[in-house]
Amino acid sequence: MYLSVSSRLRTLLLCSLLLLGGCATMRPDALPSWSEGPAKQAVIDFVQKTTDTSSPQFVPVDQRIATFDQDGTLWVEQPLYAQVMFALDRVKDVVRAKPALANEEPFKTVISGDRAAMAKLTERDLFTIIAASEAGLNIEQYQEVVRNWLATAKHPKFQRPYTDLTYAPMQDAMKYLRANGYRTYIVTGGGQEFVRAYAETVYGIPPEQVVGTMFKINYEIRDSKPAMIHAPELFFNDDKEGKPVGINMVIGRRPQAAFGNSDGDQQMLEWATGGSGARLGMIVLHDDAVREYAYGPAAGLPDSHVGTFTQALYDQAKQKGWIVISMKRDWKRIFAFEP
Amino acid sequence: MYLSVSSRLRTLLLCSLLLLGGCATMRPDALPSWSEGPAKQAVIDFVQKTTDTSSPQFVPVDQRIATFDQDGTLWVEQPLYAQVMFALDRVKDVVRAKPALANEEPFKTVISGDRAAMAKLTERDLFTIIAASEAGLNIEQYQEVVRNWLATAKHPKFQRPYTDLTYAPMQDAMKYLRANGYRTYIVTGGGQEFVRAYAETVYGIPPEQVVGTMFKINYEIRDSKPAMIHAPELFFNDDKEGKPVGINMVIGRRPQAAFGNSDGDQQMLEWATGGSGARLGMIVLHDDAVREYAYGPAAGLPDSHVGTFTQALYDQAKQKGWIVISMKRDWKRIFAFEP
Hints:
43% helix, globular, homodimer
């Protein structure tokens, strides 16, 4: 009797263990920061149908390319792009190195600290400030200057380093894609060298997988050593029509998936999703004023010069089957530091 | 006795097998097309000291980048670069599509077939012909046109397809480097899209690892589909000072090793070998008139406009410790089709 009970118990225990084992072989949630819903499901469906060898939409591993815009897609872009913040902060160093600039615009205005005047700086002014933030430095020096700034600068709203302000759901998506043989590229309107300074640490994306706006870099012999020196001249604008062109320059393949958040990403999404087979286009809609920011003007949100997302893009997304990600509804948590 | 002999025999056989086993664990020659000598040894030494974790010159796998010029380094460049041959052959198609060009130079001269007049075409003329060979095609069409040409065109001296004329020792070196964690990139003065059309099949090098001269490519919507269209305008010249700049654009890392054969590769070799730790710079000297071509003028060989290798570069190589590869002495066989 004792043995019999014991044997029954053992069987029961074994079954339970097997059941647990069954549970353990189920994959853990690959996208834990996403709420359940169509956006999360679209990512999972896309990965499944392009990586299952029996799927008619199977994509060989060398063609698994996913491209991500950075500002507003992978991290916070409001109230101003991090690179603009960096360049504004760097004006004092630029002027220290070249004191004559103190009396020249737009540097004079930035040094004055007059916020009303600064708010009136034109795009051309900002470009001049960004170009000056790089000029004359060699590529290694510039990366060090960017890293030093990132180590100390704080975002005005969140009072945290900018590198804390990456979106956890996008980090999930990039890891999930990489775990399934996708190579993840950043394709940004921001500076290629600026983003390369932190992309590997912050996103796990190596320098050869960063496509961005390029300033002229000159090869020179300095102190009898070869050096690559930043010049204050635009070489390639990796925005709008420039994004597919930049993708072709650096990757030479059409992406299977593309993620963006603004009008600057429209052509990249068109190009990626315009190919045959399974394609994924996703656009982040910033509709969460509590946890992040709300701007649009898609879906009646206030307009923004930073990360403009027009109604036309919203309509195109609907028409083309691109998934509009509602930060409010589709993202369970936005930042890794949230409880 | 019988048993005893049998047992001795068995021991002997076992020992022989073990010895054979010992031989089998020794690596086969990784560079079978190279003659024994300092050039072959330099490649082996470089790989060993940069991949042995106990070496002070160990290089982490993500930094293992080797860059190769193409024309004259990976395949034959005489009597004219393959891309120039292609563009000349394509003139008739270009003129068929746009008949007005038949009366315009340099197309008129090419169509005339007058070899004396063709020999006088300037670099600017050749550029016009190359630009016209791409213009108006989308990137997929252009790659198909290049592949079709490669499938039928024959080299005037060897009477074989150009793709047969890659150097077996360089194919060995690329495979050996890749087997040791290196990523091999082509960095060519030739057209990026031209080389991408065959680099994967011919060298095992995927499109994202081809850096080359870039013509302007425009993103457009054609017949309501996104398209990338070649324009007849130079965007980036990946030669001389351009090579380190192109490397930075596409790779964003300084190579550990670089292989070239002409003055156009000087800056790439300077940049690659100017870094710290173990570095490898190699230059192919075409000194084998019997098996390939002989030109220089380094080492007293006749001068050439195609793949110019000046005495100044030769002197710099000696001074910087770059290895000059003598095709005659250092390469056991030049082409895979040799017996």
